[in-house]
Amino acid sequence: MAEANAFRAAARAVRAAAREGNQLLSGGVSEVRVSDPEIARSLRGILTACGVRLAQDGATGRMARDGATENAENGPDRPGFVFVDDVAAVPDSAIAAAAQARGLPPVYADPAGHSRSSRAADAESRIAWAAAGMPATAALAARLLAASARDRPRLAVSLVLEPKTAAFARTLADSGCEVAVFGAVSETDPSVATALELGGGVAVFAPTAPVDQEDAGRVDAANAAAILDWAPELLIDDGSHLLRLAHTERNGALDALRGAAEETTSGVRPLVEMVAEGSLAIPVIAVNDARTKTGFDNRIGTGQTCVTAILDLLDPPAAAGTDPRQRAVGAAGEAWTVIGYGPVGEGVARFAAAFGARVRVVERDPVRALAAHLDGHAAVSLREGLAGADVVVSATGVWHTLTAEHFAALAPGTAVAVAGGIDDELALGTLRTLGWTERRLGEDRSEWIAPGEASGPIVLADGGGVNYTAGEGNPVEIMDLSFATQLAALIRLISEDLPAGVHTVSAADEAAVARASLAARGAEAEAEVESARPGGAAQHWRTHRYGSRA
């Protein structure tokens, strides 16, 4: 039991560190200065499983007596996460000194679940923090400024409206675009929308104050229509909702709209159908399909933040205490069922396992099911996956992945969440029709009870994407890659006359984004070798091992 509680305390510390600055674990550097050997060992294990490199004494600077890290102000190996016995013991001077470093300052966390950094809680501070952590976006923005200098295009941005998106919108405005942002009620931080509106330079079509749930649909429809009436020439969309609105009820928007970039898998799918029907009237670049997006945003960023958001809802940060060995709720030993093993499902499974869960995967594609099995997870049927699950995560992006029949098969108390997500991925509307009742257990937690039953499964974040509905969304560093890829797409839309249809991000643009991110991390890729031969073969095809050697 002591060992299990040490692991849970370590997991709570890692979650606190990631949550404090909305930062990426994978690829980061961490320094463990916790005196309890069992907790320290568990910390190192979890961090390593999440892709974090552990600082070595002398390689990244030792901890000075005042709590700061010496000789590591700006190096790529500066610890981004520092784990200590008690963050309250870290002097304010150390926090202030860290804030002067280039990039994102380090975050301090302890096994009791407390954390500290130089990031303040107000919206402007969170926006500034996000901007400091997006060097690849800044690099691509310089190219956009050159491309847009002549005509200052009108650009609409429809993304989850939180600090990173606000920082991105300001970058776009500084890069020569007229910018407007749209945010749905369920996907908008009103304080961020307010800060963006008050800051000027960006038109805001999103709620700047809380909206009652029954009014959300009306408010969203009005804002969606208004941003299209703003007559954007270019659009960055999420879920292709505005794109589809522009091709249906608000088709007058197509008079001005000349190109778009789509951020998500669930948004690209209907666009492909539109192409097949001959209905897509403009060129759309599938940013989602770029290697610099799906391989990082979906698999790593969404995986990390969905798992930590779920655990934060089941073990709220407010429950953090002063005794690091107190009973901490976590994933350790629990049965998690992940439905879907695309990039999002793969990431959720990976991070759930890193936090100690026993992961089962439900996947219709036998190749992906085999991949899940060889990744160390149990590949099972949906019926088996639902039976005995402590947590069920839908990672399909498919309507009604979990039906009323599936909910009826869940044990009372089973937590159900959506990773990524589309509208109605969980059939909650059907549950209401069938007489199920919803009992609110607190913010972002509801128990759904079937007729005649006393208890039922617990739905997190009302069935929305759990990481952006109940948290701040994907980490800053991940959105840096996604936004930089969006910038590459915008530059292409401005510079080239593309035909209507769905287009891919070029390999050259993927490489440019990746190299910008590598450079910011103090890393590099080997120089590419150009081959004059189709397919890149080293020798002419007539040269083979069995040829005459006479």
UniProtKB/TrEMBL annotation:
GO terms for molecular function: adenosylhomocysteinase activity. Residues 541-550 have a biased composition (Basic residues). Its cofactor is NAD(+). The keyword Zinc-finger does not apply. It comes from the Bacteria. Keywords: NAD, One-carbon metabolism. Transmembrane segments: none annotated. SMART domains: AdoHcyase, AdoHcyase_NAD. Signal peptide: none annotated. Gene3D superfamilies: Adenosylhomocysteinase-like, NAD(P)-binding Rossmann-like Domain. Residues 298-473 form the S-adenosyl-L-homocysteine hydrolase NAD binding domain. Residues 527-550 are annotated as: Disordered. One of its GO terms (cellular component) is cytosol. Pfam families: AdoHcyase, AdoHcyase_NAD. One of its GO terms (biological process) is S-adenosylmethionine cycle. Coiled coil: none annotated. InterPro entries: Adenosylhomocyst_ase-like_sf (IPR042172), Adenosylhomocysteinase-like (IPR000043), Ado_hCys_hydrolase_NAD-bd (IPR015878), NAD(P)-bd_dom_sf (IPR036291). Belongs to the adenosylhomocysteinase family. This is Adenosylhomocysteinase. It comes from Leucobacter edaphi.
